[in-house]
Design a protein that fits this description.
Elements: H1 2-15, H2 22-45, H3 51-88
Helix pairs in contact: 1-2, 1-3, 2-3
Length: 89
């Protein structure tokens, strides 16, 4: 589960910067946080290393923040362009 959380965290962090993909990147971040937390819990219970799951958790949180900021920027730019276009007519 830690590896899946890491992969989703990477996808979320990268996809948050791309305007169309940031609509999906926040979901990847949330799912990555859940999987990484479960992976850390299972690794601690089995007395194994939690490094991959911790990295997935950190990347998922960062990716979630980046994707939400990117989504807000996209919405603001589209609404500003729509307001500018309607004022020119």
């Amino acid at each position: 589960m830690g590896i899946a959380g890491l992969v989703l965290g990477i996808l979320s962090a990268i996809g948050g910067w791309i305007p169309v993909l940031n609509y999906f990147a926040w979901a990847f971040g949330i799912i990555g946080i859940i999987l990484s937390a479960l992976g850390r819990k299972k690794a601690k219970a089995a007395s194994e290393s939690t490094g991959v799951a911790t990295a997935g958790l950190v990347l998922s949180i960062i990716g979630l923040v980046i994707s939400v900021i990117g989504l807000l920027c996209t919405v603001i730019c589209v609404s500003a362009a729509a307001g500018l276009g309607s004022s020119l007519m």
